[in-house]
Amino acid sequence: GHTRQAAYLDYEVQSAAKFKTAADGYDAGNGFGGGAPAAAAWDMAAANIGQSNVASLQAFQGSRLLALGDKSYATMGDELVCSQTGTDSVSWRHKLSGDLAEEGGFLGTPPIAAGGKLILGTLSGSVIVMDAETGDEIQRFEIGEPIRYQPIAMHGRIYVTTTYGRLHSIDTGDASLTGWSTWGADAAHSNLVTQ
To answer: Which of 31, 47, 49, 167 has the highest count of CB atoms within 10 angstroms of its CB?
Structure first.
């Protein structure tokens, strides 16, 4: 199998990152100035996923797997990885820009599928439309604000929220980009592709 260091899940790495400092501030603004309450089980979360604040736990989406045809896709820290479903064979990797240890969390959102293509947002503020077979970039839209949450795509528009609390609507000019109407694809948040 393929193994690699997962700095995006390592508490020692994450506790020194910018995201930790920002999450401390978000928590303080929401009444958790003394840190996350015990009920948040932050200590168990820190050991498992490297995050220890209410805000960073709420923002954590993990390597949410997307299955499309005979391939599986997952954002793993600083890259999007495409694998053959049911094997450990990697078809391609797409490196995301940024310094994972410095920034904290993931450098990209979990990918979505629309119109047979992949879409993901990045912490550097881009929304990328990619060829699902090759990993080649088809379109890139610069938002200029950090994106940590999975986008949605309907009727040729991509909707994405930023860590600044803004919602952006992008007219892609590609009507085939549709069918992913909510976080996780559907009301059950199943991440299942129905197109």
So the answer is: 49
Q: Are 71 and 52 part of one and the same domain? A: no
Burial of 145: CB neighbours in 10 Å, binned 0-12, 13-18, 19+? middle
The pLDDT of 90-95, averaged and rounded, is 96
Nearest to 8 by CA among 88, 151, 109: 109
Domain count, the chain: 2
**Pair 77, 166 in one domain:** yes
* Three-state DSSP state, 144: coil
Reference 109, options 173, 195, 184; nearest CA is: 184
Kindly state whether residues 71 and 19 are assigned to the same domain: no
| Higher-pLDDT residue of 41, 194 | 41
> What gap in Å lies between CA 143 and CA 128, rounded to an integer?
11
In terms of domains, do 153 and 80 share one? yes
Rounded to whole angstroms, the Cα distance separating 171 from 157 reads 5
pTM listed for this prediction: 0.88
